[in-house]
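In response to reviewer comment 3 from the previous cycle, which asked for concrete evidence that the modeling workflow produces usable outputs, we include below a single protein chain processed end to end. The sequence was submitted unchanged, and the resulting structure tokens are shown without manual editing.
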Amino acid sequence: MTEVRKSYFIGLLFPALVAGGSLLSLQVASGSAVLPAAATEHWTADNGNCTYSNPLFYEEFEDPDVIRVGDDYYLAGTTMHMNPAVQLMHSKDLVNWELAGYCADRLDFGPAYRLEGGNIYGRGIWAPCIRYHQGVFYVFSNVNGAGLQVFRSRSINGPWERNQLPGRHDLSVLFDDDLNKIFIISGGRAPYPIEELAPDLKSFVPDARHELVVPSGQRMGEGHHLYKVSGKYVDISAIPGGAVDQMVAVGESIDGPWKVTRMVQGESLGVTAATPLSAQPNDRGLWLHQGGMVNTPSGEWWSIIMSDHGSAGRMVSLVPITWDDGFPLIGLPGNLRKAPNTWVKPNTGFTQEPKPAFIHDDNFDSGKLNPLWQWNHVPDDSKWSLTEKSGALRLHSLPAADFFNARNSLCQRPPGPESIMTVELDTKGMIAGDTAGLGLLSTPYAWIGVVKSAAGKTLQMYVSPNMRRRFGRRESAVPDPANAPTVSPDNPPGHLWLRVHCNFDTDRAVFSWSQDGTEFTPLGDPFTTTFQLRTFQGVRPALFHFNTSGQSGGYADFDNYVVEEPRARGIERAIPVGKTIVLTSGADGSFLCAEPQNMSLVNVPTDARASAASDTHFQVIDLGKGRVALKAANGRFVSAAADKVALKDLAGGMPGDAESFQWVNLMRGDTMLMSLVNHRYLATKPNEPGPVTVSATGPTPARKGGACFKWKTVE
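The workflow returned the following structure tokens.
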């Protein structure tokens, strides 16, 4: 790592990891699972010790719907204006996933879908529903303004046939074999219409209308997921918004009566609405909502459900379901409607080694694009090539006023919590009016690139003004002196490297460039990334080339697109088994301490002497499956009973459930300890030294509620 790159890496990363003046989480722990190299270099939910940690993918995957077919699981997600459309994933264990393909190579319903005289930013594919019936996969998705698309294939890998029906918002389909009917529920307001589809799925059955009527004083939402379980009808829907819950309705028949309750309530998994460093203790955060559910052959039930993650976009988590009083509720017994961030993997009957779902690199040597690439709108296939220059992506420029309106921009989702995207660029084929480079597509947007004019080439970094949410129009940012590009004092060489370094814990992106691919020089001020409703997505790194003269221009060659994930594994995800540690509250810095007089666990105020006192030292005993026992210096074990905590003498016996705690790692160095007695967490009262309880239902968004701890080893 060069000194220039290292300094910017530390500058972006350091604020998110500092706690109480020391890097408490940066400890090399023994006992960590041995993982394949790819699983340490790219985000992998599987921890390699029979547990997993959320998010399932540390990058945007919106509006998930999941099904099981035999021993296989399939997941569909929203792609909006991107092409190819409707992303499909496959898994054998619900934790390790791989890309299965897309339903449509091109989503073309007119000029705006091609960025010709308009755009479809934030529209296109919304909230797909995936189903399997009698040997055929079906994916249903509304395209705003175009209609309901019905895709079908005998293989999840395609090819897919398509027909169209009148539009239905945020729909779900149920093949009810008991009644030999196909139901479809849609809409965002009660009463929710439930219609019937013809057997060929090419029309609605006339006059066959039902309704989900919500009981007085109750509410449902949008983003429906309709099921039939043990003869009863179950509809899941999400209240619209970010800090909102997911609801569930259960009906005796398709016509009701329906009972409604909250399926998950106020669960943020410690994700803040603001950037982590800006979060306040009373921050409501961003809650789990909108997702489907699925069962395993062993009888377990699970949900894959979405929540917002700032400018990186909306991500999905895998969370257990417990059936309670006839309702499928997210959570574990004793802590319903809440979700663990780390838990034991589903019992699917299948075992595999940890594997990242997404590896974004592309050297363009294979003759095919990495399938993770998506075009911003429908591309002009005559203006890009992988064969005109062997081993490179050639983009011929098309006329556009700016990056936001440029066709043939090739995009990916950036991994979090931090990622560094680098690409080589050869500019010898550019002509006057051309601009080519590496951008972050959003509103506002930013890019670094080479601009060719009659006078020559310049290297520029540009940040656009913001734009209001306006569907369908061709939009260009109005020139503003405050948004003038930053021009490098150096004339760019014909061959150079461009880079953008995104930190989604700080919502900052730094653009830089290099002449040799080793020494990188920042250009322009750090760009503040945002999640906004104009594109309805997080930021998208993009390779682009456009010409501002109103005509097609020259060409630019891109090569060796590399995505580094500095915190893909995160040292904070290690468990210090066999080590002696001290634990401090993330809320007030107080120390957990063994109180020998009452044989209880307490927290004591921050004191330089406390960390050296033996009463604050606990040995971490490995119990397997990511579970630990904490042994105090006096030989007693931390033990939970109801919501109380004591120090228990096991008289040489093995720790039981009362002494077992699931080690739960959040990112940014925060750790929680979940009791196996009630599935709640060790917690202190911030700024109130006293007894420790196991009463916390989860982390507060800002992680200042007393249930999140920092740890360091005792030397």
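The CA atoms of residues 195 and 209 lie 5 Å apart. We consider this sufficient to address the reviewer's concern, and the full set will be provided in the supplementary archive.
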